[in-house]
Amino acid sequence: MTENNFIKKLDLKKPLVIFDLETTGVVINLDKVVELSYLKISPNGEKELKTYRINPGIKIPQESIDVHGITNEEVAKYKYFKEYANELFSVFSNCFFAGFNVIGFDLPMIQKEFKEAGLNFQYSADDIIDAKVIFHNREKRDLTAAYKFYCGKEHTAAHSAEGDILATYEILNSQFERYPEINDEEFLRSIHSQRDERYVDSERKFYWRDGEAYFNFGKHKDKKLEDISNEDPTFLSWMLGVDFGIEVKEIVNNALNGTYPSKNSKNRV
Question: Most CB atoms closer than 10 Å: which of 21, 71, 154, 226?
Fold first, then answer.
């Protein structure tokens, strides 16, 4: 589909704003925007592309700098969000919104920024086109889909143990033929160890802030692990007894024994 057909297919009754944010971190009620880019497409096809660099007014942790490359020194010369707020509110008002994961992060984040600037920015689920949601909905990532993609066959024995392992065997054969680089042991090790470096663990129960672990869930969300281990150790004991993974329980057990994860440590847990 060409670009013009994409716009025609949507049959826009109001402008579409495709946007993305870079922020000081992943916590909506704590972090701030440091960069905002948008492409606004009018129903007649006219486009406006603009990027704002923004002073968040708080320190950008190193783990976030590692993701987007925007430093505290760079943002110091720019205005705060509240100084752009009226201009941006005009851009974002009465529009459709699109992006990658705008439902889960970008829209709630910018709504919070507008609120702090004294502006009531509202949006409806009916006004959102999230490319991530579409991708995950239409492009399945289960064994049956992988068997179809790599082997060109329907997985008729899905969810039987023997059928699944035989399909997996065929998929692996196809992958090793298709991707010669995965024959290298170091490459396999590197892709299996990849994770979002903003989080302490693969389950994302803890996130990094200034090199220290903070809770990413529950009643202690956005509080430092070290503080809670001293103030409410019974919560950590509870975590050891419920259905968290081995990695999370190791972090918790170490915290109860006075040892905390450090992002700068080679062995972080």
Answer: 21
Q: How many Cα neighbours within 13 Å face the side chain of 131?
A: 7
Q: Which amino acid is at 245?
A: G
116-148: pLDDT as tens digits? 999 999 998 889 999 888 888 888 888 999 999
> Cβ(110)–Cβ(33) under 8 Å?
yes
Domain ranges within the chain, ordered by starting residue: 3-135, 143-192, 195-269
Q: What is the predicted pLDDT for the residue at 253?
A: 92
30 vs 86 pLDDT, higher one: 86
Four-way CATH pick for 3-135: 3.30.360.10, 3.40.50.300, 3.40.50.2000, 3.30.420.10 = 3.30.420.10
Residue 243 pLDDT greater than 70, yes or no:
yes
CB-hemisphere CA count at 13 Å for 75? 26
Our measurement of the distance from residue 253's CA atom to the centroid of its chain's CA atoms, rounded to an integer in Å, reads 27
pTM of the model: 0.70
Cα–chain center distance at 5? 30
Q: CA 65, CA 221: separation in Å to the nearest integer?
A: 22
> What does the pLDDT look like over 193-226, one tens digit per residue?
556 778 898 888 999 988 899 999 999 999 999 9
How far, in Å, CA of 70 to CA of 75, rounded? 7
Neighbouring CB atoms inside 10 A of 47's CB total 13
